[in-house]
Amino acid sequence: MGDLGAKVAGKGFGLPEGVWGRVGGWLMARGNGPTEKHLVKLAGLRGKEHVLVLGPGPGVGLVAAAKYAGIVVGVDPSDTMLLAARSRCGELIEAGKVQLIRGDAADTHQPDHSASVVMSVNNVQLWEDRQAAYAEIRRVMKPTARLLISVHKKWSPPGLAAELESAGFTNVVATTWEPPGRRATTAAIYTANR
Description:
CATH topology: Rossmann fold
CATH architecture: 3-Layer(aba) Sandwich
Number of domains: 1
Helix content: 40-55%
Largest sheet: 7 strands, mixed
Strand order of the largest sheet: 3-2-1-4-5-7-6
């Protein structure tokens, strides 16, 4: 990938901003949306659970999770994506069901042991320091909390399941899922407990 391609990919998907970020957000809503909804279904959300979504992008997963959880917090480093999520989740934000916070996987700004479920779709490969992110995720998870991470299989960091186990997560299971659509790529899904 040339310099221009890398710049477009970074501004569209890495840390979305500007016009390319808005285009990337539109593509994410279409491309990641089915996987986000699938993860919400896998999580088996119920009642008053506190859900933390890392890198919610334009907010499709936030809306899906808010149907079942007590509160859903989206943490994203991109102002462009937070704006898109705010637009999609406006009524849910006003109702107190969704909160948006500028941060990242290694710095969520969440209280200790607050999250019942932590989810991430197609951004674990972008985390600058996955070990720091894992420590932060464990810090915010309740003792019985569940972690669900999905990433395009072709972009999944090698040894991700082993990394999660080394970071102290238990019951780590790696599976795959075929999202609907002709151009959809296989999702690698990792589930674990604190």
